[in-house]
Amino acid sequence: MNPSGAIGKDFFVQLSKEGSKLNLSFSGYEVFDNIIMALDGINRKLLLMHCNDFKREPVILPLGEKLNVSVKKTYSGIPAGGLRYKSLDAFVDKIVMEFELSDNPTKAMVPVFDAAFNQPGDRAKLEKKARNWQQLLMKLSGRHQHKTVEQG
Known about the structure:
This protein is α+β, with helices and mostly antiparallel strands.
């Protein structure tokens, strides 16, 4: 990524190379923080690749019955009476997408929002993008349920 946070052309070249190497054809992608999610709808696979470290192996998740996608929120400390004047969303510290396969205990995490790095005004937009991806991936995997987990 360049200093402005935008993804450079060299990254997309690397993504294309990875896709070719793995016989994937991407129909959509989204960049969250320093990870890109690229969807191959035909082969029903999702590739997770780090933007700032090409040496790290990408994670490939099959979209099937065994995949569960969660959007999780973590909240910062809420002072006594803090909810009197602010909504609960004002205290969101982090939002992550968590990918879990029922036959594999390892979870893949994609950071969506971090209050330390993102603008507070971007939280709702980023959360909506994550939920839209969650819904799409669950439909493609044959599962129409999704779960939201909020952690304090």
